């Protein structure tokens, strides 16, 4: 019995190795487009954020007003699939007699156990692929270890200091008389399964007399984020689907040469999708094919109120991403500065 178990284990490990080698031999040039930034590029669309782009974006700061655009990172928020979070506080030096020195110094620190794609977070270039083919035709089977990726990690990204453009699709649907909301939303929202089109995005830009330019980051307000804000009470409803951009809208955004697309939803794209045979196809279009980041679970209600009051949809987009080697994504803090 022990020999059979050993042989079974060897066969299992061997099959994994053979599978990885087989995937590593995929001809990704037939599956994924080449990067417009060169054959060795691992950075993606943040290549578009040049010093000139950042300087131009700085002109958006007129009053110094800071708008929070990320949700608090805490246990209990909605999570996709089997993702989890757990916070553990270490405060042992607060126990009697455990302090340090004559000054009785004490300290506390945290352990945060979590996947990287939780809360308001950024999808990196290594998050989504076709088969084992990822951004810039990289056959990822050759570049993964038990711990991380050896290509396409977050350490390759450049600055996100650019212009943000806010599109309020709720107002677009209200103005067109086609808003079908969800009873669980406390404020107007598009219901799950609502496909946001390129025409919807263009109508939203027209409402604020805004034109996209290369290097922008687009943030879409659907109202669905109100369910996130009600955590944990509405977690099941929030995760049950969502309004989002469809393939035509994604194609149009790619043509505008944006850097990232974010929304107040857990996938940015419409769920259920337009084609039941395709899985998260907009992720493939933006990330895998175009090097454009997706930012999920963005808090948009505060900026929506600001834009409604001023009719100005642009702002300086402030988001720092850690140079986390080999990671596929990370939770982020975003501020829109006006």
Automatic annotation (TrEMBL):
PANTHER family: CYCLASE, PTHR34861. The keyword Ligase does not apply. GO terms for molecular function: arylformamidase activity. Gene3D superfamilies: Putative cyclase (3.50.30.50). Keywords: Signal. This is Cyclase family protein. It comes from Vineibacter terrae. The keyword Ion transport does not apply.
């Amino acid at each position: 019995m022990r020999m059979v178990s050993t042989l079974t284990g060897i066969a299992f490990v061997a099959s994994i190795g053979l599978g990885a080698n087989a995937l590593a031999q995929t001809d990704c040039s037939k599956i994924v487009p080449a990067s417009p930034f060169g054959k060795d590029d691992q950075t993606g669309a943040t290549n578009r954020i040049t010093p000139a782009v950042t300087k131009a974006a700085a002109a958006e700061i007129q009053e110094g007003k800071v708008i929070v655009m990320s949700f608090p990172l805490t246990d209990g928020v909605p999570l996709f699939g089997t993702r989890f979070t757990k916070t553990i506080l270490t405060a042992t030096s607060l126990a009697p007699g455990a302090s340090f020195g004559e000054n009785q110094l004490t300290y506390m620190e945290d352990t945060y156990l979590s996947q990287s794609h939780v809360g308001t977070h950024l999808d990196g270039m290594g998050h989504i692929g076709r088969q084992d083919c990822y951004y810039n035709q990289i056959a990822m089977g050759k570049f993964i270890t038990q711990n991380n990726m050896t290509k396409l990690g977050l350490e390759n990204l450049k600055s996100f200091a650019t212009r943000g453009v806010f599109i309020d699709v709720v107002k677009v649907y209200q103005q067109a008389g086609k808003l079908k909301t969800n009873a669980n939303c406390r404020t107007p929202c598009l219901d799950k399964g609502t496909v946001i089109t390129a025409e919807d995005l263009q109508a939203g830009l027209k409402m604020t007399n805004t034109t996209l330019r290369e290097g922008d980051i687009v943030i879409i307000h659907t109202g669905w984020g109100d369910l996130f804000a009600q955590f944990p009470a509405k977690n099941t409803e929030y995760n049950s689907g969502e309004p989002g951009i469809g393939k035509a809208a994604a194609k149009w955004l790619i043509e505008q040469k944006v850097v990232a697309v974010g929304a107040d939803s857990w996938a940015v794209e419409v769920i259920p999708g337009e084609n039941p045979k395709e899985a998260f196809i907009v992720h493939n279009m933006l990330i895998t094919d175009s090097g454009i980041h997706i930012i999920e679970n963005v808090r948009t209600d505060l900026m929506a109120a600001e834009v409604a009051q001023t009719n100005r949809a642009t702002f300086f987009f402030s988001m720092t991403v850690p140079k986390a080697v080999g990671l596929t994504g990370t939770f982020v803090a975003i501020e829109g500065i006006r």
